[in-house]
What does this fold into?
Amino acid sequence: MSATILEGPKVAEAISEDVMRRVQALRGQGVVPQLAIMRVGERPDDLSYERGACKRAEVTGVAVKKLVFDEGVTTDELVACVEAVNADDSVHGLLILRPLPTHVDEERVCNALATYKDVDACNERSLGAIFTGANVGFAPCTAQACIEILDHYGIEVAGKRAVVIGRSLVIGRPLSMLLLERNATVTIAHSRTVELERLAREADIVVACVGRAAMIGKPHASAGQTLIDVGINVTEDGTLVGDIAFDDVVDVVDAVTPVPRGVGSVTTSVLCKHVVQAAEAML
It folds into this structure.
């Protein structure tokens, strides 16, 4: 029996509908929720994400302000821009497209951002709050998107064994904390984990976010599982694929996200949701 396909666009639409209702309520109180996007240069992946964020913001009614700099920008100039955003009550969230150029002190730029406007958890205080359980700031949008998918499709997390394959501060580690907060029993694995296949097979929920095309396949899968694929990889022929070999597992597991039209399609909706939450908190 083929797995249930956990389609991201359906989740994104549901989140967007909720966001639109909340935007209307805010506008009724004279508040226009606004996202600022900081971009340095013209990296194709940055431009692609910016376009997606702007499109979703337009749908939901969130205003967008673009802060674009050339590649030669200095750390001081970016920090000054962040501090100006902190002081601007009309801007409720700032998305800093990363990585920044190597000559820029990215840590300093991100840590200059006020936590209550850090809608993608780029600074140390936001990330620290996720690990301590403090009710401050926001989770990274992609990590939160995984949780939104599980919630939308009614997949129970409490008491389940979850294996997160990937240990980045952007997805793997914060997502592990979000699952732990939902009372899952969480194991963080990675590309060098011994007996990874066995570990993954024994899990109820597997999240692949290691950044290697089709790394997770049939030997890692078992009946009854839910697989969440966060990977975005481009093959030599230009095909977009995830970290999970979809065709190898779809007839084995209970549910799986596709790539594309999976986690990535939910991320910008979560971003807009965070901006609205930030605007509501400032009332």
About this structure: Residues 29-114 form a domain with the Rossmann fold fold (CATH 3.40.50.10860).
